[in-house]
Amino acid sequence: MKKLKRSARLVEMTQYLLARPHTLISLTAFAERYQSAKSSISEDLAIIKEVFEDEGIGELNTLAGAAGGVRFVPKCRKDQALEKIISICRELEQPDRLLPGGYLYMTDLLGQPAMMQEVGRMFASAFSDRNIDVIMTVETKGIPLAHATAQYLNLPVVIVRRDHKVTEGSAVSINYVSGSTKRIQTMSLARRALKEASRVLIIDDFMKAGGTIQGMVDLLHEFRAVVAGVGVFVESGEVDNEERLLHDYVSLARLTEVDLKSRQINVQPGNFF
Q: Can the keyword Lipoprotein be found in this entry's annotation (predicted)?
């Protein structure tokens, strides 16, 4: 690209880093891209690093050595994230969101790109140090959450299907018991979708007893994969620990009270906070 003034170079470098999270970029690559000396590039990166950290955007990690460079790791400050989650909790407490069985209608929120980006950044911040290879979710409502998280971790997304699709080739299918309804259900994953021994981050929109997520964990065993973490947008707080099938997870919001008669809903920040 053409040689830029320093102010323009700072803007372009910032955008370049934001678009490539968790990617190691060498100083040589930057120097060649902007036709500038490495010393100038280092000064620019120091400025960007300071702004990223002061504004809670993330970290700019430096790796020394011939094969070194810089890597942008998206992060979110807990105070900023908490403010956004409290706003989401107030949205979820609207009485008209209450569905039979104590579930909440969340599809409209899951369809808001800006909100999903914020949620995805929170998950990415929570699991940034887990050495993850791929993100998994089950169709359909978990898909926007998984893709938003994948954007900040720069990882592929694998989608578990309720019914096997012929267009996906051979698949592994298992039966699992739904923790909330106690019904036996089926989920499947195409064999080509996941490499053996992958480290997987599971993302889901809602967890009651954890039956669906436990089903995904069991499915991963068939691929000899490792569960690197579990992230849940909203968890139900009305399930006893003895009934819950999963205990090691990160939740962003917690449904603590549902009164079907009065249509009162109480949602609080989850265990991430």
A: no
